[in-house]
Amino acid sequence: MVIYGEDTDWGRIFGVGIKKKFVESGWEVVSEDYVPLTQTDFYPILGKYKKIGASVLSGSSTSPPRLSAFVKQVPEVGVKAVVIADGLG
Asked: Taking the model in full, what pTM does it have?
């Protein structure tokens, strides 16, 4: 699984919490990435997730445009994963 989020206290706190729960349940975290709150181009990072074969992408953002761009780009890149997209906006 992958942890992703905005590079803010909120994004990192969410990441730490969800990571703990998944690891306790036996999941392996293969990548953990935090990017600027204004980023809306996720094609490079999603390509990385596709290449490593991540089956779950879990993260959060307080920016609706950012989160909607991420969710839209997942299938465009061909990532075959369940997306957990927690959003505050």
From this structure: 0.92
